Every structure is written in C-alpha cells, then in structure tokens.
Amino acid sequence: MKRPFIKLFRTPNSWYFYDVAKSELCQIQPDSYLFLQRLLDGDVVSEPPDELVHLAEMGYLTSESPVEELCHPYSRYLPQFLDRNLRQLILQVTQSCNFRCKYCIYSETSSARQRHHSAKHMTWDMAKRAVDFLWEHSIDSRMVSISFYGEPLLQFPLVQRVIQYSKARFVGKKLTFNMTTNGTLLTDDIIRYLAEHEVSLMISIDGPREINDANRVFANGQGTFDTVMGRIRRIHELEPEYAQHVHFSMVIDPTNDFDCINSVCVDYDVVHRGGLNAAIVDKEYDDEETQFSSTYIEKYQYQMFLSYLSYWGKYPKERISPITYQALANAMDKVSRAEEPDGLQRIDVPSGPCVPGKMRVFVNVEGRFFPCERVSETSPAMCIGSLETGFDLENAERLLNFANITSERCKRCWCFRHCTLCAKKADTGEAQLSPTQKLINCQEAK
To answer: N or C: less crowded end of the chain, CB within 10 Å?
Structure first.
C-alpha cells in the first residue's frame, strides 16, 4: 500500500483517519491505525489489515490529491457580485478615538503594519458617495446593512445624516444599521435616537474593573469601566426593551485569570443578559505571539468541559460561561460541516477566504475599499478599490485566490477543506502577499 493522503486522529477509546480526498472521517480498528501510522512514518510494513484492504477497494486511502488547479468557484462571478450584490457597507466615520487601549491595533507605539490614530474624519460628501455606491451595487440584494466604524459617536451628527439619507435612498429594501462603540459617549438623546431607529448596538467591555481598566483607558490614562457600566445601566433605564438586544464585544487578554475575565458576565446582570462576541487580543501587526497564562488555560478548559456537558444535557445551560458557550457553538458548527462530506475536486480551493466585497466592503475616511475592517489600511495588497475608481477586480480576485501563492503545499495539505486562513495571514504590508508569512500561519489553521 502506498502512503495515503490522510490524517490520523484518535481519542482515548477510538481510532480514526481523515480521508482528505473524500473529506470523510473513518473509524478504524487499533491494528489498522497502527499500520497507517507506521506507513506515514516511512516504515517498511507488511500486508495491510483486511479492514484497510476493504476500504481501499471502496475508494478510500488514495495516495494522490485530486486537486490539479487552485481556483475559487466564485472567481468567474466576482465582477457580477461586486456590481450587483453588495450587502454590507462599513463606514469608517473617524480615525480618532477617546480611548487609548493598550492592545489597540491603531496604537502609536505598536502595530507597525497598521495605521495609527489620527484626527481624520469622513466628510458628508464621502459618506453620501459611499451610500450611493452601495445603492448602485446592491440591485440583487434584498437586504442591505450599513455599519459605523471607528469611535462612531465622535461623529454622531454624521451618523444621523447617513441614517436619514439611507432610509430615503433604500426604499423597498430591508435596511439595517449597526454600530460598535466603547459606550462612554452614549448620552440620553443618543440612546433614544439609536432605539428609535433600531440601530443594532455593540458595546466593548473586556471584563470586570480590574481586567478592563488594565487595558481599556481614556487618553489621559484613567480607567473606563465605571463610565461604560454607567452608560449600559442608563440604556436599561431609558429603553429597557432596546437594552435587551444590546450586544457586547470582549477582547480577551489571555495572560489574565479566565474566571476573573468571565466574572463580568456573571456578576453584572446588564452584561449577562446581552449577547457576547469574544476574541483573543490581536497581535498580528506587532509580529508577536499571543501569550497564554497557565491559569487562563486551565480554567478555560474546565469551563469548556462544563459547556460540553451542558450541550449533552448534563449541566444547566444558565450556569455556562457566555465566552465558552460561544466557543462551543463555533465548535459544533465545525462538527456539523465536517459531517457533510465534500470531496476534493480537480479544480478546487482551500476553505478560508471570503469573497472580497461581496459580504461587506469597508470604506475608510479617504474613500478606499478593503474587504473588511480587520485588515491593514496601509497595505496596498489589501486595498480592493476606491470610491474614485470603483472596485479593483484584479486585486479582489487575487485575494480570493491567495492560496495560489503556496499552491503545491495547499494541494497536499490535509487541512485543505477546513482551512481558516484568509489573505490577511499572508500580508506583510507590501504590494504582494507573502508565501512565507502564509506558511507561518498554517499551523494555526491545522
């Protein structure tokens, strides 16, 4: 038997191989597992067990990848998507902020491959042109969304003007608005306005006072927790129904104690009742590796254990950490997708990249287009056009098919169908994406 195109997995009581070409997970006997393990290690082995012979006869355990060419199936439709099917516009209404979070990707002291804080604001003319661009390029979209980025409450009059103009412009389509804010500038009038216009609101908070105020500080260095919590409570007082739909964004610093981070979701009822979007602090633009404390890892894993017990009905759901519950939901989504085999094709592409511009287009204060708000605004490789010139279809297609920069490695990768890398993982701030940078991040996906 030739070396098969598989990946071996095992649990305490079971043995498996993942057949990459078929994208299927197969349970096998221990002797078959040991045989395959030795075969993958390059050992000289005897005749395979009957189980493996039978599986090979059924088309499993092939030695070659069927993929000959990397090309995203949406490549040919990209011009049409960007011309007629836009769904979300993200407006960077300001590059300024009244916070100076110590992990911020726009920090003046770090994140060399990203822009820094500036006093630049989006003009009304620029915002209007962006809304018009969305209208002109969303003919086939039944629903469209407009989001406000930066610290949008610093530009609230502009936000109001965009909402008013967009409602008149998009008559006949379902139109929604979204805003992420640090919450400190939420006055009573603003709260009432957001509730009246049903603006989906997400407020950033990183944990209880001692955790939050270690990183999330005002420009003068003072902590922000008390101000933010005061504004959250005020939403519940003024607009109790609207408050039930407020979500929270949490950037987790995993050098801290997980139980301490999680306590804000347990001890503060106004946070516990809201949805939570948690993410580990982003160190990519610092070229640093994120550090995890042993305390964080141990307590996080215990909470994940309880979350799995809850999933199987063995532990009360209301006692589960919202942070690990979100992680559990993501894990279950991956499991469900893995249970739907999608074998590799002759022309195929690794999973991971979005279709640039189709799901969202991020417009910065200067009117330049990017696939989303998470990529570097200083990188020419990430720019997919502008309000002045329209979409750069060539660069958008390059981002969609960025796997081609490591095509041979990708074709032979067992994680092909489950890859999570997007073009950001190959961005070094240059005009071209970096194969070396991409391969550095491959282990993360695996």
So the answer is: C
